[in-house]
UniProtKB/TrEMBL annotation:
Keywords: Cytoplasm, GTP-binding, Nucleotide-binding, Protein biosynthesis. It holds the Pfam family EF-G_D2. SUPFAM superfamilies: EF-G C-terminal domain-like, P-loop containing nucleoside triphosphate hydrolases, Translation proteins. Residues 17-283 form the Tr-type G domain. GTP binds at residues 94-98. This is Peptide chain release factor 3. It is found in: Cytoplasm. InterPro entries: EF-G-like_DII (IPR053905), EFG_III/V (IPR035647), G_TR_CS (IPR031157), P-loop_NTPase (IPR027417), PrfC (IPR004548), RF3_C (IPR032090), RF3_dom_3_sf (IPR038467), RF3_GTP-bd (IPR041732).
Length: 528
């Protein structure tokens, strides 16, 4: 991505203040890729207007990324799309995941300052949105809601507000309100300024929407019943106190809501404006010592994703680092917090799909890709001057388990190396089972597609054909040595060691089975 987005000698605090780092959380098909393209389109247009000298055609960049996803059949790249909009640098972090989730998807949320929850107007809250929202809730990440696909039939706007409040407990505070039901989208009323903006898709729908501010009288005349209904709904909203409150939003208790249709760019500009105006910039980050690290202190960051072999022509490993404080400068010598060793950052890049640019400097909120950073692991901290350690990234409880093995004895060394690599990257969790021995590790995943990624990569990158034997467990809980002894007396329960951290995990076929076992052994330690 373009260097000039970053080039500035302004102070670190000012640079952090002009950054917005967020991710889109949504269910597959709600329109995340379309929204990404729509946001990129704004960047491209700015580029053409001269405010940002975009490098190449940004739609091309996004398409490359998607082509790569298609080629591998899954979303494998997790990087940040960076662009400048009205002097603000937007970092949009990808939350990979199509029909399924992996831990990667969740981990991206440890590196953002806010999230955009994208809902399909016809479907409302869907399962994967709820799962991702749960991570946002646990981390108190402020969430902006965008009701997408308002250009085609869907739920009633007020019913969607009720659904949000009832199912996830966030108070919806619409900032814009649609005139026209889903499928008859006329435009939106800005609830704070009361200005109505008529919106129409550009011919073909591929360009920015055509927007026109219109007086209430003209809108009433043009849209009759639609206008009246929207105004009645606005009165209802005012009565329920659904007004935007900065503190409530930042405390992740309320969510500003916007309406639009990403496919036609309707409402996308409004979303960008809300991100600029209301989404929080990077701020002081808690460290394990209990103090917060200010954004304008010396450089620090943490690794939130590792990806190997992204580029087939150069077999390499990239560690994605979210900058938390200070100014990052390519080539700077940083300390790897986990080993205390120096680490040189000569090969720092900005990576989005296959597009790579060398990056010279970065500021809090930005994401840098460190190439060939094989010493780095997920969650590791990097810093200069004073030592700092950010809390370990959460590990999500796996729900799918399978024994992986290879019948190709000549390939066993490669098999082992491959499993270690995938564990290090966090593609799957690797468990050791005393019963099965080292030759047959157990893979544990949050979503079953992680298995496909693992076996595909073992074959493509390590040349090992593997077999998977799925195990009949769905729930894992942490236990201890005493628990392991107790559980030996129970059938259909196994205790395994997670290689990554040595944790003992007790595996149960169902939650109710876990409860019944726990009920019989009051001293048994089981932590979800
Ligand atoms: P995802 O990344 O969240 O999985 O969703 P994606 O953007 O791929 O969108 C899923 C489908 O929904 C696509 O249609 C896309 O065009 C459509 N879509 C996205 N936003 C809107 C919107 O605002 N209005 C309408 N009407 N449709 C929208 P598709 O038929 O699967 O693909 P395509 O052939 O249209 O690209």
């Amino acid at each position: 991505m373009s260097q000039n987005v970053l080039a500035s000698s302004a102070g670190v605090a000012a640079q952090a203040g002009r950054r917005r780092t967020f991710a889109v959380i949504s269910h597959p098909d709600a329109g995340k890729s379309t929204m990404t393209e729509a946001l990129a389109l704004h960047a491209r247009v700015i580029g053409q207007a001269g405010a940002v000298h975009g490098k190449g055609d940004r739609r091309g960049v996004v398409s490359d990324w998607m082509a790569m996803e298609q080629e591998r059949g899954i979303s494998v790249t997790s990087a940040a799309l960076q662009f400048s909009y009205q002097d603000v640098v937007i970092n949009l972090l990808d939350t990979p995941g199509h029909a399924d989730f992996s831990e990667d998807t969740y981990r991206v949320l440890t590196a953002v300052d806010s999230a955009v929850m994208l809902l399909d107007a016809a479907k409302g809250l869907e399962p994967q949105t709820l799962k991702l929202f749960e991570v946002c809730r646990q981390r108190s990440i402020p969430v902006i809601t965008f009701i997408n696909k308002w250009d085609r039939p869907g739920h009633d706007a007020l019913a969607l507000m009720d659904e949000i409040e009832e199912r996830i407990g966030l108070k919806p505070t619409p900032l814009t309100w649609p005139v026209g039901i889903a499928g008859h989208f006329r435009g939106v009323i800005d609830r704070r300024t009361e200005v109505f903006t008529r919106m129409q898709r550009s011919p073909g729908g591929a360009d920015l929407a055509i927007e026109e501010e219109m007086s209430p009288e003209a809108a009433a005349e043009l849209y009759g019943a639609d206008w009246e209904t929207a105004n009645e709904e606005l009165q209802l909203l005012a009565m329920t106190g659904a007004d935007f409150d900065d503190k409530e939003f930042l405390a992740a208790r309320s969510t500003p809501v916007l309406f639009g249709a990403a496919v036609a760019n309707l409402g996308v500009r409004q979303l960008l404006n809300v991100l600029l105006e209301l989404a929080p910039p990077p701020s002081a980050r808690p460290t394990v010592s209990g103090t917060d690290k200010p954004v304008d202190s010396a450089f620090s960051g943490f690794v939130f994703k590792i990806q190997a072999n992204m580029n087939r022509t150069h077999r390499d490993q990239v560690a994605f680092v979210r900058v938390c404080s200070g100014r990052f400068e390519r080539g700077m010598l940083v300390t790897h917090g986990d080993t205390g060793r120096p680490f040189t950052t000569k090969y720092a890049q900005q990576i989005f799909g296959q597009g790579r640019d060398t990056i010279d400097e970065a500021f809090p909120g930005d994401v840098i890709g460190l190439v060939n950073a094989t010493a780095l692991g997920i969650g590791d901290t990097l810093y200069v001057s004073e030592p700092v350690k950010y809390p370990a990234l959460p590990s999500f409880p796996p729900e799918h388990f399978a024994v992986v093995s290879t019948s190709d004895t000549a390939a066993f060394k490669r098999f082992r190396r491959g499993i270690e690599q995938l564990d290090g990257e966090g593609v799957v969790q690797v468990l050791r089972s005393d019963q099965r021995g080292d030759q047959s590790p157990v893979l544990a995943a949050v979503g079953p597609m992680q298995f496909e990624v693992a076996t595909h990569r073992l074959e493509a990158e390590f040349g090992v054909k593997t077999q998977l034997n799925h195990l009949p467990y769905e729930v894992a809980a942490r236990t201890d040595e005493a628990g392991r002894e107790i559980l030996r007396t129970e059938s259909n329960v196994e205790v395994m060691t997670r290689v990554r951290d040595g944790a003992l995990l007790a595996l149960f076929p169902h939650r109710w089975r876990m409860r019944s076992v726990a009920g019989r052994h009051p001293d048994l330690r089981l932590d979800d």
